[in-house]
Design goal:
The protein has 335 residues and is an alpha/beta fold. The chain has twelve helices and eleven strands.
Length: 335
């Protein structure tokens, strides 16, 4: 019989899995909450059941995958505590995610939240003072349990009430990964995932691209941002966007992201990138997009190359014969 009920903020990295299991092993009913946005975790979109089954099978953890994309964009635009080294609002991100988890906790009358944070592991978001700020601003003081570092922190309500045995929690701190790896082996993890990470907003090149995009477009969708993070993007003089796939996987992703009204361009006779054109389908802009595609293909030294285009969900289609453009002409258009 369960001693209590909790939600775990499940990033999918090793720390959150270990923290979840530490609490589960005390007889607590724990459900993982895996929040996703185009900046992290979005590879699971559309394939949720496969990932959920993986967590059940490998670690015995029940979880949910929840898309918070549209709400999260405001956090990126206006972080109260600013950005990290790039365009990453790490402190505000945690406050937002923990606040959303608390809303679900209250709705479903669970007892507390679990996080895989380790004191001192990350210089911006896991300092002692920052951990307290996150608790205060998310309204999770007293109900946010960090099992991996609990004995280095003040006791939470579930510990004080005896629902959770504090002596069976840990006192990890610092940046070493060895304690987590040792614990994973003790728990019999069949696969040891890497630390949670991969947020595109911490990548210097992608972060610069996203910052510029957010400054120019006040109304964005998850699809817009996902498109920006694929392949090689350009902004054409008329305000249209063009994204080229750099490899087959990116070409497939562009096909997935194409929306009604978008135009797909490719060379029918010569191997090369797929292009996704978004915006007003003006003849001059489409011709420039076709020339850029040729410039990034094996046909870049040919005088005239055929590029076909087809509008998704529309009747617009044709074959253009264009010349490649120089790197000097392309450079100002790179996003």
């Amino acid at each position: 019989m369960s001693k209590g009920r909790a939600f775990s903020l499940l990033s999918g990295g090793l720390d959150s899995l270990l923290a979840t299991r530490l609490v589960m092993d005390q007889g607590i009913d724990v459900v993982g909450l895996h929040f996703i946005t185009p900046f992290f975790g979005y590879d699971k979109k559309g394939g949720e059941e496969r990932f959920l089954e993986g967590w059940r099978k490998l670690y015995g953890i029940q979880a949910r995958i929840i898309d918070l994309s549209e709400e999260y964009f405001e956090v990126v635009r206006n972080p109260r505590y600013g950005y990290g080294k790039n365009f990453n609002p790490c402190i505000d991100c945690k406050i937002f995610l923990f606040s959303k988890a608390k809303e679900l906790l209250l709705e479903e009358r669970r007892d507390f939240l679990v996080s895989g944070e380790v004191l001192g592991q990350r210089p911006m978001s896991q300092r002692r003072d920052t951990l307290r700020i996150v608790e205060r601003d998310s309204g999770t003081e007293g109900i946010l349990l960090r099992p991996l570092s609990a004995r280095n922190l003040d006791p939470t309500r579930p510990e004080q009430s005896g629902m959770v045995d504090r002596e069976r929690l840990l006192n990890m701190s610092g940046r070493s990964r060895k304690p987590q790896m040792d614990l994973a082996r003790e728990m019999g993890f069949r696969q040891t995932p890497s630390p949670a990470g991969g947020c595109f907003l911490t990548d210097p090149i992608l972060a610069q691209r996203v910052r510029k995009f957010f400054s120019q477009y006040p109304h964005l969708t998850a699809n817009d941002v996902s498109l920006l993070l694929v392949g090689r993007p350009f902004q054409l003089p008329g305000g249209q966007q063009l994204v080229l796939g750099r490899r087959e996987a990116e070409n497939r992703r562009l096909l997935e992201l194409a929306q009604p009204g978008d135009v797909l361009l490719k060379m029918p006779e010569i191997p090369g990138p797929l292009g996704l054109f978004r915006g007003r389908p003006e003849e001059v802009a489409l011709g420039l997009a076709a020339s850029i595609i040729v410039s990034y293909s094996k046909a870049k030294n040919l005088a005239r190359v055929g590029v076909e285009y087809q509008q998704k969900g529309g009747t617009l289609s044709s074959l253009l014969f264009v010349s490649p453009v120089s790197e000097e002409e392309i450079a100002p258009l790179k996003f």
